[in-house]
Design goal:
single chain; Aspartate Aminotransferase, domain 2; seven-stranded mixed sheet; about 475 residues; alpha/beta; five-stranded mixed sheet
């Protein structure tokens, strides 16, 4: 047996172990961080390791790693496992193409461009639109900010920033906006955080007030970030109303749909991003609502010239055949780039656009199950709202931070907490479309049983206030 065949056989064996473990123990046994290096041999050896020992260590790592695909994982803005997408990712690893030129990627270039073309059509971008696959949602937001900067001051690409630009975003937006302002030269102090309403949506009137104030003192408004699915509440900023303002003042509008931008595939929920066609750029993560393996992020631009102007650079040693439309390195931030498109394509190709719609709709249906349960149970306090897959609540008078930590440390379920205004609560995310109504109700049963059986482990909110 060849080495590759032997290693693939080992891979299959480890996958079987993982699947079996997920069924028997949906939550991985926790290893305290200060005990990690004693619990598992992660050291790198001077000499080769015997195959059986190597296999044993790998098995231990697989069993101990947090399980993100089970019906008791609700912690992150991703979860579950779409098998056809996994198939595509495994093929991408075996093919090992870099996506910068047609010469080395071949048909994979067409796969990426087909996804981008279809996505642009779904949101109403015109024939001059295009896009690329960045390394994640944060990088998508960064690329959008750089394009906005360059569109406002084209000489900036050559001479550096010479004018004080300002970026605007909701107080509830993703933390990457601040980092990106630092990287792009806009500067963290030149971000204006706009107030959100009681549902976590940016208030357009407050945005315009701030823009007017900045213009009066000589600042140049360059970039507005709207969010389609805020990190905590899953709120959707009102894109049409924001677009009215950005068009009036000639400002780049980017819509960060990393979390919930997948609603573009749903006939029922696409209204949440009404006005998306008026934006200059839009990004979404297929590894979130659509369930492909990490990472699979897409940024679309209404005018591909902006993408080319900000990120193209000639390199004779690299671009030796074919035209710019087939040499994707001309419009991406990085040079060497793994193939993140194939796994999304294998999913989309296999289930169709209708199948992707069902994946998205299922998550909202699961959120409705959770909302109905919470609203019908007086032991719960609800902090979120309809049309979001982030369900935020508190149970009885338990402290949400202590509750989530105890559930995790005792390997019961994995769920996180969040805050909005003065409230902190459990944030339960129904993004795993493989779950059913039974799985959602089971989560609440597990949570309630744990609190009842372990009252000493969980502080009440009153105790927490006394502690502070």
């Amino acid at each position: 047996m060849s080495k590759i065949s032997s290693d693939l056989a080992l891979f299959n064996e480890l996958v079987e172990t993982l699947i079996s473990e997920e069924e028997k123990n949906p939550v991985a046994g926790r290893i305290d961080s200060d005990e990690l290096y004693d619990a598992i041999d992660l050291s790198l050896n001077e000499s080769a390791m015997v195959d059986d020992e190597f296999k044993s260590v790998l098995r231990e790592i697989v069993i101990s790693t947090p399980k993100t695909a089970t019906n008791l994982f609700f912690n992150q803005l991703f979860g579950g496992r779409q098998s056809k997408a996994v198939l595509g990712d495994l093929l991408a690893v075996m093919l090992n193409n870099s996506m910068y030129t047609y010469k080395v990627a071949g048909p994979q270039v067409g796969i990426e461009q087909e996804i981008i073309r279809k996505s642009c059509n779904l949101i109403g971008y015109g024939p001059t639109s295009n896009g690329t696959f960045p390394t994640g949602g944060s990088m998508s937001n960064y690329m959008a900010m750089v394009m906005a900067r360059d569109a406002k001051d084209p000489n900036c690409r050559l001479d550096g920033m010479s004018r004080p630009m300002v970026a605007y975003t909701s107080i509830e937006s993703h933390y990457s906006i601040a980092k990106n302002a630092s990287f792009s030269g806009v500067g963290r102090n030149n971000i204006r955080y706009i107030q959100a309403d009681s549902n976590g949506k940016m208030i357009p009137e407050k945005l315009e007030e701030q823009i007017i104030a900045d213009i009066r003192v000589g600042f140049i408004p360059a970039f507005v970030n709207a969010t389609a699915g805020t990190t905590v509440l899953g709120a959707f900023d009102p894109i049409n109303e924001i677009a009215d303002i950005t068009e009036k003042y000639n400002i780049w509008l980017h819509v960060d749909g990393a979390y919930s931008g997948g609603v573009i595939f749903s006939n029922k929920y696409k209204y949440l991003v009404n006005g998306i066609e008026r934006s200059q750029s839009f990004s979404y993560n297929a590894h979130k609502m659509l369930g492909t393996p990490l990472t699979c992020s897409i940024i679309l631009v209404n005018d591909k010239k902006q993408l080319h102007d900000s990120f193209s650079n000639d390199a004779d040693y690299l671009y030796q055949t074919d035209g710019d439309d087939f040499n994707l390195g001309k419009t991406s931030f990085q040079c060497g780039r793994r193939n993140d498109a194939l796994k999304f394509w294998t999913l989309w190709k296999s289930v169709g656009t209708i199948g992707l719609k069902k994946i998205v709709d299922q998550q909202f249906e699961l959120a409705d199950v959770a909302l109905e349960y919470i609203r019908s149970n007086p032991d719960y306090t609800l902090y979120s709202f309809d049309d979001s897959i982030s369900v935020c609540f508190n149970y009885k008078d338990t402290d949400p931070m202590d509750l989530c930590t105890a559930l995790y440390e005792h390997q019961v379920t994995v769920v996180g907490f969040g805050s909005f205004k003065e409230n902190t609560f459990v944030r339960f995310v129904t993004i795993n479309a493989n779950n059913s109504k039974k799985d959602i109700l089971n989560f609440f049963k597990v949570l309630e049983g744990f609190v009842e059986q372990n009252p000493a482990l969980i502080k009440t909110k009153e105790t927490t206030r006394e502690r502070l």
